[in-house]
Amino acid sequence: MIIIKTNEQIEHMRKAGEILAACHREIAKMIRPGITTQEIDQFAEAFMKKHGATPEQKGYNGYPYATCASVNDVICHGFPGKYVLKDGDIVTIDMVVNLNGWLADSAWSYAVGNVSPEAQHLLDVTKNALYKGIELAVVGNRIGDISNAIQVYAEGEGLSVVREFIGHGIGEKMHEEPQVPHYGPPHRGPRLKEGMVITIEPMLNIGTFRSKLDPDGWTARTLDGSLSAQYEHTIAITAEGPVILTAQ
Length: 248
Ligand code: MF3
Ligand code: CO
What we know:
Creatine Amidinohydrolase, three-stranded antiparallel β-sheet, 4 helices, binds 2-amino-4-trifluoromethylsulfanyl-butyric acid, binds cobalt (II) ion
Protein backbone atom coordinates (compact mmCIF):
# COMPACT_ATOMS: atom_id res chain seq x y z
CA MET A 1 0.00 0.00 0.00
CA ILE A 2 1.29 3.44 -0.93
CA ILE A 3 0.90 5.86 1.98
CA ILE A 4 -0.40 9.30 0.95
CA LYS A 5 0.98 12.17 3.03
CA THR A 6 -0.89 15.30 4.06
CA ASN A 7 0.61 18.72 3.35
CA GLU A 8 1.46 18.97 7.04
CA GLN A 9 3.33 15.65 6.95
CA ILE A 10 5.20 16.71 3.83
CA GLU A 11 6.14 19.90 5.67
CA HIS A 12 7.69 17.76 8.44
CA MET A 13 9.66 15.85 5.80
CA ARG A 14 10.78 19.10 4.21
CA LYS A 15 12.26 20.20 7.53
CA ALA A 16 14.18 16.92 7.77
CA GLY A 17 15.25 17.47 4.17
CA GLU A 18 16.54 20.96 4.92
CA ILE A 19 18.84 19.60 7.61
CA LEU A 20 20.03 16.89 5.25
CA ALA A 21 20.69 19.38 2.45
CA ALA A 22 22.59 21.68 4.80
CA CYS A 23 24.68 18.71 5.94
CA HIS A 24 25.55 17.88 2.30
CA ARG A 25 26.54 21.50 1.69
CA GLU A 26 28.97 21.32 4.61
CA ILE A 27 30.34 17.97 3.45
CA ALA A 28 30.94 19.45 -0.01
CA LYS A 29 33.27 21.98 1.63
CA MET A 30 35.06 19.30 3.70
CA ILE A 31 35.81 16.87 0.87
CA ARG A 32 39.50 17.05 -0.11
CA PRO A 33 42.45 14.72 -0.43
CA GLY A 34 43.59 13.70 3.07
CA ILE A 35 40.24 13.47 4.85
CA THR A 36 38.92 10.07 5.96
CA THR A 37 35.39 8.85 5.35
CA GLN A 38 35.12 8.30 9.11
CA GLU A 39 35.69 12.02 9.73
CA ILE A 40 32.87 12.84 7.32
CA ASP A 41 30.60 10.31 9.06
CA GLN A 42 31.33 11.75 12.50
CA PHE A 43 30.70 15.27 11.20
CA ALA A 44 27.34 14.22 9.71
CA GLU A 45 26.17 12.52 12.89
CA ALA A 46 27.15 15.53 15.03
CA PHE A 47 25.49 17.91 12.54
CA MET A 48 22.20 16.03 12.71
CA LYS A 49 22.27 15.94 16.50
CA LYS A 50 23.06 19.65 16.68
CA HIS A 51 19.89 20.26 14.65
CA GLY A 52 17.72 18.04 16.84
CA ALA A 53 17.70 15.16 14.35
CA THR A 54 19.04 11.59 14.34
CA PRO A 55 20.79 9.48 11.69
CA GLU A 56 18.16 6.93 10.65
CA GLN A 57 20.65 4.64 8.94
CA LYS A 58 22.54 3.91 12.16
CA GLY A 59 21.15 0.65 13.48
CA TYR A 60 18.88 0.14 10.45
CA ASN A 61 18.95 -3.63 9.83
CA GLY A 62 22.18 -3.57 11.83
CA TYR A 63 23.92 -0.99 9.62
CA PRO A 64 26.58 0.49 11.95
CA TYR A 65 27.07 4.10 10.75
CA ALA A 66 25.25 7.40 10.25
CA THR A 67 26.31 7.59 6.60
CA CYS A 68 27.22 5.29 3.76
CA ALA A 69 30.54 6.31 2.17
CA SER A 70 31.01 4.59 -1.18
CA VAL A 71 34.39 5.20 -2.85
CA ASN A 72 35.18 4.60 -6.55
CA ASP A 73 33.96 1.09 -7.50
CA VAL A 74 31.66 0.90 -4.48
CA ILE A 75 28.07 1.30 -5.69
CA CYS A 76 26.44 1.86 -2.29
CA HIS A 77 26.40 0.98 1.42
CA GLY A 78 30.16 1.39 1.87
CA PHE A 79 31.31 1.64 5.50
CA PRO A 80 32.94 4.91 6.59
CA GLY A 81 36.37 4.15 8.03
CA LYS A 82 40.07 4.90 8.04
CA TYR A 83 40.28 5.15 4.24
CA VAL A 84 41.99 8.43 3.34
CA LEU A 85 40.43 10.09 0.31
CA LYS A 86 42.98 10.85 -2.39
CA ASP A 87 43.15 13.11 -5.43
CA GLY A 88 41.08 11.60 -8.25
CA ASP A 89 38.70 9.56 -6.06
CA ILE A 90 34.94 9.86 -6.25
CA VAL A 91 32.89 9.26 -3.12
CA THR A 92 29.14 9.01 -2.56
CA ILE A 93 27.81 10.07 0.84
CA ASP A 94 24.30 8.75 1.54
CA MET A 95 22.28 9.55 4.65
CA VAL A 96 18.78 9.59 6.07
CA VAL A 97 17.74 12.29 8.55
CA ASN A 98 15.03 11.60 11.14
CA LEU A 99 13.45 14.77 12.51
CA ASN A 100 10.59 14.15 14.95
CA GLY A 101 9.81 10.80 13.31
CA TRP A 102 9.75 12.07 9.71
CA LEU A 103 12.49 11.09 7.28
CA ALA A 104 14.40 12.48 4.33
CA ASP A 105 16.96 10.57 2.24
CA SER A 106 19.64 12.00 -0.03
CA ALA A 107 22.90 10.72 -1.51
CA TRP A 108 25.45 12.84 -3.35
CA SER A 109 28.64 11.93 -5.22
CA TYR A 110 31.67 14.15 -4.77
CA ALA A 111 34.87 14.54 -6.74
CA VAL A 112 38.01 14.52 -4.57
CA GLY A 113 40.49 17.02 -6.00
CA ASN A 114 40.91 16.59 -9.75
CA VAL A 115 39.17 13.60 -11.30
CA SER A 116 39.58 12.01 -14.74
CA PRO A 117 37.34 13.13 -17.61
CA GLU A 118 35.68 9.69 -17.48
CA ALA A 119 34.88 10.10 -13.79
CA GLN A 120 33.57 13.64 -14.37
CA HIS A 121 31.34 12.38 -17.19
CA LEU A 122 29.98 9.69 -14.84
CA LEU A 123 29.23 12.32 -12.16
CA ASP A 124 27.60 14.71 -14.64
CA VAL A 125 25.43 12.08 -16.31
CA THR A 126 24.34 10.50 -13.03
CA LYS A 127 23.25 13.88 -11.65
CA ASN A 128 21.44 14.74 -14.90
CA ALA A 129 19.74 11.32 -14.79
CA LEU A 130 18.34 12.12 -11.36
CA TYR A 131 16.84 15.39 -12.61
CA LYS A 132 15.43 13.72 -15.75
CA GLY A 133 13.64 11.32 -13.42
CA ILE A 134 12.40 14.12 -11.15
CA GLU A 135 10.90 16.00 -14.15
CA LEU A 136 8.59 13.04 -14.74
CA ALA A 137 7.53 12.72 -11.08
CA VAL A 138 4.18 14.35 -11.80
CA VAL A 139 0.59 13.38 -11.00
CA GLY A 140 -0.77 10.96 -13.60
CA ASN A 141 2.56 9.57 -14.77
CA ARG A 142 3.62 6.05 -13.79
CA ILE A 143 6.75 4.98 -11.94
CA GLY A 144 7.92 3.26 -15.15
CA ASP A 145 8.03 6.63 -16.92
CA ILE A 146 10.69 7.76 -14.43
CA SER A 147 12.54 4.44 -14.64
CA ASN A 148 12.62 4.41 -18.43
CA ALA A 149 13.73 8.03 -18.85
CA ILE A 150 16.71 7.41 -16.57
CA GLN A 151 17.73 4.20 -18.32
CA VAL A 152 17.40 5.60 -21.84
CA TYR A 153 19.44 8.68 -20.97
CA ALA A 154 22.15 6.81 -19.02
CA GLU A 155 22.63 4.11 -21.64
CA GLY A 156 22.65 6.73 -24.38
CA GLU A 157 25.65 8.25 -22.59
CA GLY A 158 27.40 4.84 -22.56
CA LEU A 159 26.81 4.12 -18.86
CA SER A 160 24.98 1.24 -17.18
CA VAL A 161 22.16 1.34 -14.62
CA VAL A 162 22.46 -0.66 -11.39
CA ARG A 163 19.55 -3.09 -11.02
CA GLU A 164 19.86 -4.43 -7.46
CA PHE A 165 19.32 -1.12 -5.65
CA ILE A 166 16.34 1.10 -6.34
CA GLY A 167 14.41 4.10 -5.08
CA HIS A 168 11.45 3.79 -2.75
CA GLY A 169 8.57 5.44 -0.98
CA ILE A 170 9.56 7.17 2.26
CA GLY A 171 7.79 8.80 5.20
CA GLU A 172 7.86 7.58 8.79
CA LYS A 173 9.73 4.53 7.47
CA MET A 174 12.87 4.59 5.32
CA HIS A 175 11.55 2.08 2.82
CA GLU A 176 7.87 2.21 1.88
CA GLU A 177 5.99 1.35 -1.30
CA PRO A 178 6.30 1.97 -4.20
CA GLN A 179 9.56 0.56 -5.53
CA VAL A 180 11.28 2.98 -7.90
CA PRO A 181 13.63 1.16 -10.30
CA HIS A 182 15.94 3.25 -12.47
CA TYR A 183 15.46 0.97 -15.50
CA GLY A 184 12.56 -0.69 -17.28
CA PRO A 185 9.68 -0.01 -19.68
CA PRO A 186 7.60 3.21 -19.66
CA HIS A 187 3.85 3.37 -18.91
CA ARG A 188 4.10 0.59 -16.30
CA GLY A 189 3.92 0.47 -12.52
CA PRO A 190 1.89 2.48 -10.01
CA ARG A 191 0.38 5.79 -11.11
CA LEU A 192 1.70 8.84 -9.25
CA LYS A 193 -0.81 10.63 -7.03
CA GLU A 194 -0.74 13.84 -5.06
CA GLY A 195 0.75 13.25 -1.60
CA MET A 196 3.10 10.40 -2.53
CA VAL A 197 6.72 10.86 -1.44
CA ILE A 198 9.43 8.85 -3.17
CA THR A 199 13.16 8.78 -3.59
CA ILE A 200 14.83 8.74 -6.98
CA GLU A 201 18.44 7.59 -6.62
CA PRO A 202 20.09 6.32 -9.79
CA MET A 203 23.39 4.47 -9.43
CA LEU A 204 25.28 4.46 -12.74
CA ASN A 205 28.45 2.53 -13.61
CA ILE A 206 31.07 3.04 -16.30
CA GLY A 207 31.23 -0.72 -16.96
CA THR A 208 28.86 -3.55 -16.14
CA PHE A 209 25.71 -2.96 -14.09
CA ARG A 210 26.43 -6.18 -12.22
CA SER A 211 27.57 -6.00 -8.63
CA LYS A 212 29.09 -8.14 -5.89
CA LEU A 213 28.91 -7.90 -2.11
CA ASP A 214 31.94 -7.65 0.19
CA PRO A 215 32.29 -10.14 3.07
CA ASP A 216 31.00 -7.39 5.43
CA GLY A 217 27.54 -8.11 3.96
CA TRP A 218 26.90 -4.46 3.03
CA THR A 219 29.48 -2.97 0.68
CA ALA A 220 28.25 -3.42 -2.91
CA ARG A 221 30.88 -3.06 -5.66
CA THR A 222 30.82 -3.16 -9.43
CA LEU A 223 31.69 -6.68 -10.60
CA ASP A 224 34.34 -5.36 -13.02
CA GLY A 225 35.85 -2.75 -10.68
CA SER A 226 34.62 0.19 -12.77
CA LEU A 227 33.57 3.47 -11.16
CA SER A 228 30.04 4.00 -9.84
CA ALA A 229 28.22 7.21 -8.89
CA GLN A 230 24.87 8.05 -7.28
CA TYR A 231 22.66 11.08 -6.71
CA GLU A 232 19.46 10.86 -4.69
CA HIS A 233 16.70 13.25 -3.69
CA THR A 234 13.47 12.81 -1.72
CA ILE A 235 10.57 14.07 -3.86
CA ALA A 236 6.98 14.97 -2.96
CA ILE A 237 4.39 14.56 -5.72
CA THR A 238 2.12 17.61 -5.57
CA ALA A 239 -0.57 19.25 -7.70
CA GLU A 240 2.03 21.89 -8.54
CA GLY A 241 4.56 19.27 -9.70
CA PRO A 242 7.53 17.55 -8.07
CA VAL A 243 8.91 19.21 -4.94
CA ILE A 244 12.51 18.29 -4.01
CA LEU A 245 12.45 18.04 -0.21
CA THR A 246 16.25 17.62 0.00
CA ALA A 247 17.19 20.46 -2.41
CA GLN A 248 20.58 21.93 -1.56
N1 MF3 B 1 19.85 5.63 2.21
C1 MF3 B 1 19.75 4.34 1.59
C2 MF3 B 1 18.62 4.37 0.61
O1 MF3 B 1 18.63 5.18 -0.22
C3 MF3 B 1 19.63 3.23 2.55
C4 MF3 B 1 20.89 2.87 3.15
S1 MF3 B 1 20.78 1.33 3.84
C5 MF3 B 1 21.27 1.58 5.43
O2 MF3 B 1 17.69 3.61 0.63
F1 MF3 B 1 21.27 0.46 5.99
F2 MF3 B 1 22.44 2.14 5.43
F3 MF3 B 1 20.43 2.37 6.03
CO1 CO C 1 17.04 5.92 -0.61
